[in-house]
Amino acid sequence: MDGLCLYASSREMQALTGGKIDKIAQPERDTLLVAVRCDGTNKKLLLSADAAHCGAYLTEQKRTNPVEAPMFCMLLRKRLCGGRILSIEQPNMDRVIRIAIQSRDELGDDTVYTLVIEVMGKHSNIILLREDGVIVDAIRRVGLGISGVRTILPGQRYALPPTQEKRDPRALIASDFESILQNPGRADKLLSNACYGLSPAVASVMLSCVTEKRDTSLFTAQERASAALWLYTFYQQLAQNVFSPSLLCNDFNEPLAAYPFLPPGEHVKPVGSIAEAMDALYAQSELHDHIREHGASLRKILQNNVERLEKKLSLYADAINAENSIAQDKRYGELLTASLHALKANAAEAVVTDYYSDPPQKIIIPMDILHTPGENAQRYFKRYQKAKAARDMALRQREQAVAELAYLEGQLDNLSKCTTLTELEEMREELKEQGYLKKEQRRGKQKEKPRKLPPSKPLHYFSSDGTDIYVGKNNKQNDALTLHFADGDDLWLHTKDIPGSHVIVKSAAPSKATLLEAAMLAAYFSKARGGENIPVDYTPRKYVKKPGGAKPGMVIYTTNKTAFVTPEESVIKSLRHES
Questions:
Q1: Is 372 found in the same domain as 468?
Q2: What pTM was computed for the model?
Q3: DSSP sequence for 237-250
Q4: How far is residue 106's CA from residue 469's CA, in Å, rounded to a whole number?
Q5: Do the domain assignments include residue 396?
Q6: Nearest to 198 by CA among 264, 262, 260, 278
Q7: Distance between CA atoms of 345 and 374, rounded to whole angstroms?
Q8: Would you say the C-alpha torsion 567, 570, 574, 578 has a positive or negative sign?
Q9: Which three-class secondary structure state does DSSP give residue 223?
Q10: Which of 155, 189, 243, 552 could form a disulfide with 475 if both were Cys (CB 3.0 to 4.6 A apart)?
Q11: Residue of 383, 382, 389, 380 whose CA lies nearest to 320
């Protein structure tokens, strides 16, 4: 969020002036959500110092708050809740917002606090100042060990970030912009270096409203004058709170960037406000980042267990593949026993007749000189018994290990499909039930009470002819879809011998197009995503059963057919679905 977009957002935030702060939450380590009551309505202000999603804007998004509020959040609640917003300012259109709040200090006296939001990528911060400009605290404390230029610590006097030799573009006239564009070089960089709050990327998009050229040496006098006039007009309208928020989207209609103006292009769509644009731009990516961060511990546990099972299976394979050495040890023991009368003591090898070969022939058997021929024969028999027992055990346990490995690989695939915190928590609870995570013991209680969660929902797609298709994203959803939701004649799909989602088509006789799209969904939401000719089994739901004692998400099925599909992301994203 550059200074230009932040300025447009700050204009919308002016609606909070005079409002009363009702609630303050800190849903993430670097993010605040402030509920403000103004003119009889409730509004929410999001302030983020997250490096990837820093910004300040009104929001309609709901956030899940931690059970225990962080210390900085508790401090803000104590000092600011009940206070009234006096002003919201952005000095010089730079990436700093100052919110003045009339409240009471720790002694109960009236005072004015200032909440400063610095939107500067990895250097972003949210800082609370006393009326005299002294820092009360910050969401990120910055000591000398972090920065040698500027520290942010309680008790210090606050100073603005180091300023650059730039100008406020609202104070420039058309000839000033034209002078900037007369310098040699890239026009977007020249504008960014000359004006506060303008990144080269956004400057380039602004210029696209006038010309496709970027090098000023290629500009004609008319193009230079037109670009200068457009910039002057835009900033004058912006100063009067007149702007046209828009979103730049990719081919799948996913937001890529937000602007306070409407650039040309088929992938640009107007939106009602910068707040709406920022919600659309950041909401999904923030959630994905949060899930990736909180799912990292689960992924590590799953991967460690997968590695453990792969080592086990390797050992089992060695034991099972030792058939030749097992048979040889037994054979050597029997041949030595049959020839004891002819063998010499303390010999390094024994030459005996192998009666198992046709015709019989002499063979050499290695011997231990510290043991008698009879003891050597017993040693071969013991080696045979031990290897045979290991092989038999490996044969018994390999099937169990293969099933467990399939379960864990399925959980890794499910983890990649988590799109809500509820789904992530459902996986965590399941791993506790299966013994992969320790259950927390509470005082005076033997068992941990499972956390109450709102139920998660499977993906709901509509095929090209309008048929309902449901896709499970974790084992709980898969079991619910297959065992409780689907009717007996509904079609059930799953990738063949590959971890993936259960897919239900709510139709006993779907069209070929629906069947192909459902198979693509099954392949796309599986471990084989990105592959070609992926086998997908399908059968009526009534032929799918869950064996007794099977792990969550595990089923067996019969009378199935197999389709081979290559999932195309463009097809998947073109299907209408419910969020």
A1: no
A2: 0.64
A3: HHHTT----EEEE-
A4: 58
A5: yes
A6: 260
A7: 9
A8: positive
A9: helix
A10: 552
A11: 389
Instruction: Provide the pLDDT for residue 451.
Output: 46
Q: Which of 437, 467, 485 is the last residue of a domain?
A: 437
Residue 397 lies in a domain: yes
Q: CA 118, CA 47: separation in Å to the nearest integer?
A: 10
Residues 463, 426 share a domain: no
- How far, CA to CA in Å, does 532 sit from each of 496, 499, 524, 567? 13, 16, 11, 7
Distance CA 69, CA 29 (A): 10
Contacts of 296 (CB under 8 A, 6+ apart): none
> What pLDDT was estimated at residue 445?
46
Q: Which domain holds residue 398?
A: 305-437
Please provide the size of the chain in residues.
Answer: 579
Question: Measured between alpha carbons, how far is 157 from 133 in angstroms, rounded to an integer?
Answer: 6
Q: 151 in a domain, yes or no?
A: no
Amino acid identity of residue 257, one-letter, is A
- Are residues 116 and 177 part of one domain? no
Question: Is the domain of 213 the same as that of 183?
Answer: yes
422 and 363, same domain (yes or no) = yes
Phi first, then psi, for residue 527 (nearest 5°) are: -65, -20
Position 177, amino acid = F
Contact (Cβ atoms closer than 8 angstroms) between residue 73 and residue 47 = no
Q: Which residues of the chain have pLDDT under 50?
A: 442-446, 448, 450-451
In the prediction, which pLDDT does 119 show? 93
Q: Which of 85, 118, 138 marks a domain boundary?
A: 138
- Token output for 184: 């040699």
Q: Tell which residue, 471, 463, 456, has the closest CA to residue 501.
A: 471
Q: Is residue 147 part of a domain?
A: no
Residues 382 and 333 in one domain: yes
Q: State the Cα–Cα distance between residues 97 and 58, nearest whole angstrom.
A: 13
Judgement on whether residues 127 and 55 belong to the same structural domain of the protein: yes
Do residues 269 and 351 share a domain? Answer: no
Q: Report how many domains make up the chain.
A: 4
The answer to whether 503 touches 522, Cβ cutoff 8 Å, is yes
- What kind and span of H or E run contains 110? strand 110-118
pLDDT digits (tens, 9 = 90+) for 256-303: 889 999 998 888 999 999 999 998 888 766 666 767 777 888 999 999
Name which of 118, 128, 123, 164 is nearest 146 in CA terms.
123
Residue 106's pLDDT is what?
83
Closest by CA to 417, choosing from 501, 504, 294, is 501
Residues 74, 76, 82: CA angle, nearest 5 degrees = 110
Judged by DSSP in three states, 14 sits in helix
Q: Which two tokens stand for residue 278?
A: 């920022």
